[in-house]
Amino acid sequence: MSVTAAAGFVASGTAAGIKPGGAPDLSLVATDDGSAVPAAAVFTQNKMTAAPVVTTDRHLSATRGRAAAIVLNSGNANAATGSTGVDHAERMCAGVASGLGCTPEEVLVCSTGLIGIPLPIDTIESSLPALVDARSGSPESSLAAADAILTTDTVRKLSVAERGGFTVGGMAKGAAMLAPNMATMLAVLTTDAEATPDQLKAALVDAMPVSFNALSIDGCTSTNDTVIVLASGRAGPVPAEDLAASIAAVCQDLARQMAGDAEGATKVVTFTVTGAADDHQAAIGARKTAESQLVKCSWYGKDPYWGRIASELGSAGIDFDPDRLSVSYGGHRVATGGVAADHDTEALIAYMEQRDLHVVADLGLGSGTAVILTNDLTHAYVDENMGTS
Q1: What is the CATH number of domain 2-260?
Q2: Could you list the active site residues?
């Protein structure tokens, strides 16, 4: 049931007419009684910040971290829309609040889709009463909510973690324009654990480096990225470390699903840099390599061309000694000491046919380590991103 798996939450989804062809495009996640509960969020670091991000951040500040609902739309990002866009985001919140009986500030808002196009607010407002009325805790409603936030995604993204008598559930969307900080993506998490807004925010912040901030599909950071978590408290208090672990697990699972559904992807690649001077340098090297078009094209071609990896690491601006570099694909070492290494060619060819690849570059300089989740670059990605239609 993902986002309604935790006790105390309901959801719904509908087609409001934002997208052509009648595809689902309006989603709601809310507390089952319309009351505000502890909440927290993290947002894109892009300074071209979308109106819904501004509005949600403002509402969380006004309520000191409490929310009763999140309304989300796909098909239009409501970004680069000026003060009119903020007004439209506020009107979405007010429409939901009217139906739930809470204040507009207790409603958060997310949008995803094309940038620079005014939101069809009249169409959305006319659909909000039915969206609110349709909310329920059923699996079908949860799936409808998850479907209504998708854009170029080909599948819905859902995750649930259960431990110690409490549950964390989540739904997300994201298939491209994925790069830290964060990885165009939206995610909504719910839990029935009892927690304060500060505890939820700390757990989210800790989860980002191992999940959405460890994901890069194309090196492009969206204007709308948002991750929100709500806590109903129905399961009572739980150890803070257990809650943080469950939130991180759900975020990691959703991030991996995004990598697997990236536009045109045929490979999901876990790229690890070890042996760097420190973790910070390892992260720089990992990101530089994972975002290289040449490296990503070689993965698409099923070619373990380690020379491209070596070149990217050598130009990353980090400590680097070519005589200490080794590279391996799935445990098959293809380079040692900066030169080609003997390996089982047939076994490596078979490995490169797999969808999930694990590539490790050891710099041989220290204990620094970083991992980034990425994918290959294909013709289909170009086809998807040649225009706005």
Answers
A1: 3.60.70.12
A2: 184
